[in-house]
Every structure is written in C-alpha cells, then in structure tokens.
Amino acid sequence: MDKMPILAVIFQGIPESIVLFSFGIAIIGEYINIKKVVLIAILYTLLVMYIRSIVPYFGLHIIIVLFIQAFIYWKIFNIEVKNSVLSTILGMSVLILLETLILPIFYTTFGTTMLETFKNETQRILYPLPVILLFGLITFMIYKTKWSIIKGKRNALNEIR
C-alpha cells in the first residue's frame, strides 16, 4: 500500500494526470477541453490516491487504473471504446518510458533509490517534474501540429482541403 502525501497529489499527481489525459486526447486527433481535463484529472488523481492506499500490492493498482482511464476516455470524453483503450495504452506507455529514461538520472546524481524517493516528500514531488514537463511539451507539440495516429475531429478538416 502506498499512501501519497497530499502535497505530492497536488504538485505531482494532478499535473501528471492533466498531461496524461491531454496526451491521450491529442494523440487520437480530438479537441482538448482543458477545463474538463483539469476537473477530471483532479477527480482521477484523488481516485488513484485512494486506490493506491487500499491495494495491497504495488503495481496491481496500475492495472485497475488502466481500466479506469479507458472508462473515463470512453464515458466522459466521449471517445470510442477502441480509441479509449488506445489512448490509455499509449499515454501510460509514454509516461513509463519517460520515467524510465529520466528518473534514473536523478537517482544516480543524488545517490538515492526509488524507494527512498517515495519516503521523501520533496524528492517525490521534484524528481518527476522534468518527466511531466517533457511529457507536456510532447503533448503540446502533438496538439499544435495536429499530428495524431488517428484522424479525429481536430485534424479531420485537413483531409477535406
């Protein structure tokens, strides 16, 4: 069981969720309603915090969270089921890839481990920030260039021209 400190939820969890949902929407060519994304990200992060606190095995919560994400894309963002699953898998894959590439640099540089970082609230908030910022930049670039893997509403007009 992992009990996330409230400051980590606010300064790391919510921004990460905002970027995660924004990426999932952008990558399939849909419009991002930022107000809706922020509201959903706050609720989703609180739900994830609760799930992490009750699930006895670390990692099992990720499977539960993946289903919740796909459900949110489908029911709240009105994205087709197959695209919801695709957004969930791609978003989480990119997040995990960025964490795998960037976080070890901090662990090595500061002589710490992931477990030690989880126990230190400041590190738990600060270390993921470069991941969130890079993920946000990637999402912004995808959205602004109208690049996507599926032609959604946002980039469907490009097909007509």
Explain what this protein looks like in three dimensions:
This protein has one domain (6-154). Helix content is 74%, strand content 0%. The N and C termini lie far apart (53 Å). The mean pLDDT is 92. By secondary structure, it is mainly α. Helix 1 packs across helix 2 and helix 4 runs antiparallel to helix 7. It has helices spanning 6-26, 34-54, 60-75, 81-109, 114-119, 121-126, 129-144, 157-160. It is globular.
Q: What is the typical, i.e. mean, pLDDT? A: 92
Radius of gyration: 16 Å
| DSSP, total strands | 0
Overall number of domains: 1
H and E string? HHHHHHHH
N-to-C terminal Cα separation, in Å?
53 Å
Q: In this structure, how is the largest beta sheet organized?
A: none
Strand content is under 5%
Fraction of residues in helices? over 70%
Shape annotation:
globular
Stretches where pLDDT is under 50 for at least 5 consecutive residues are none
Count of alpha and pi helical runs: 8
SS-derived structural category? mainly alpha
Features:
161 residues; 74% helix; mainly alpha; 8 helices
List the helices and strands and how they pair.
Layout: H1 6-26, H2 34-54, H3 60-75, H4 81-109, H5 114-119, H6 121-126, H7 129-144, H8 157-160
Helix pairs in contact: 1-2, 1-4, 1-7, 2-3, 3-4, 4-7
In short:
With 161 residues, the protein is mostly helical. The chain is 74% helix and 0% strand.
